[in-house]
Design a protein that fits this description.
The chain is α+β, with helices and mostly antiparallel strands and about 325 residues long. The chain has 3 domains: about 130 residues, no CATH class; about 60 residues; about 60 residues, no CATH class. The strands form 2 sheets. Strands 1, 2, 3, 4 and 5 form a 5-stranded antiparallel sheet that branches. Helix 3 packs across helix 4. The radius of gyration is 23 Å and the shape is globular. About 35% of the residues are buried.
Length: about 325
């Protein structure tokens, strides 16, 4: 998920009452919820190299053990540094080492959980396994999730500042609503994949080996349906109101002998794009002397974002 979501999740957990357990609780929860994204520096490498690095090692079990411990040490040092310099706020609660460590783990562990909910993918077992896991439940930026998180945190803070005894209630209500929302989206995804597989078999006489219900922006009840077997792929849509609707158009992963050969010539099997790709497709674009091999992922075919997840190779020119 985006970092605003991760930050708000940490803040909501604090407003549910955990921030009263120790000093520095809120900054610990919020920052820890973002720490696994230190691998975002990989985007500076350019190209698709970041696809092989992001959501891997810093999201795996070793990182989930080590990163909270390291951050806990930094926060303890910061508290002592402020105290020595006489800049520690008088209103801050004393730091409880045990609770501060627990909150560092809670915040950090919330990160891979929420990353798993979307269809981009996360390697939860890295470095022990490079297998990708997908929740296919929420779009990567979910405005309804934002709304619930912001409302819960803001109303809770407002009540707390007014000295009301029930200041935790809005955060707890928001947490319950978010859990229900995620569960409902998970059920929509499961139903969408089931009905789409049946529709593809009926309409195209093909038994899909993979069906993906891809969440879309804003319309949380809708799914972009993607399917494939060993040769062909296609798409469609699903809503609980209209069921699964499958497009008549189907295409081969490699549109012909020419692009299949070009794929084998130009693509290194260990390339970052193929390592990350869940639904790779290749096609020849252009004509004459301007032909280019385009390799992309079926999940990210929208022209607005597609080029960020595609590789292009001039036909007849060896790749470096």
């Amino acid at each position: 998920m985006d970092n605003l979501t991760h930050s708000l999740v940490g803040a909501l957990i604090g407003q549910m009452g955990l921030k009263r357990r120790t000093g520095l609780a809120m900054p610990t929860l919020i920052i820890a919820a973002n720490i696994p994204d230190i691998d975002a520096v990989a985007t500076l490498l350019g190209g698709q190299q970041h696809l092989a690095i992001r959501r891997g090692l810093t999201h795996g079990p070793i990182a989930m053990l080590v990163l909270p411990l390291m951050f806990w040490g930094i926060m303890l040092w910061f508290d002592r540094w402020q105290e020595r310099r006489g800049k520690r706020p008088e209103t801050r609660l004393p730091v409880h080492k045990g609770w501060l460590l627990a909150l560092a783990y809670v915040g950090c562990l919330s990160h891979p959980l929420f990353d798993w909910f979307n269809s981009y993918g996360i390697r939860l077992l890295e470095p022990f396994s490079s297998q990708w896991f997908y929740g296919d439940t929420l779009f990567i930026i979910d405005i309804w999730l934002w709304a619930a998180l912001i409302c819960g945190v803001w109303v809770s803070l407002r009540r707390e500042r007014k000295g009301r005894a029930n200041w935790r209630a809005p955060a707890l209500t928001s947490f319950a609503a978010i859990c229900a929302y995620i569960l409902a989206n998970g059920l929509i995804t499961g139903r969408a994949e089931q009905l789409t597989a049946q529709a593809v078999q009926k309409q195209h006489k093909i038994v899909p080996t993979l069906v993906v219900a891809n969440p879309v922006p804003v319309q949380f009840w809708k799914r972009e349906m993607l399917w494939r077997d060993d040769t062909y792929y296609g798409q469609g849509t699903y809503t609980p109101f209209h069921g699964a609707r499958i497009d008549d158009d189907i295409r081969a992963h490699y549109m012909g002998r020419e692009d299949a050969k070009a794929f084998e010539t130009h693509i290194v099997r260990g390339s970052p794009l193929l390592f990350w790709s869940r639904m790779p497709v290749a096609e020849i674009v252009g004509d004459g002397t301007e032909k280019t091999l385009k390799v992309s992922d079926q999940r990210f075919s929208n022209p607005l974002v597609g080029d960020r997840f595609s590789m292009f190779f001039p036909i007849g020119v060896e790749s470096k």
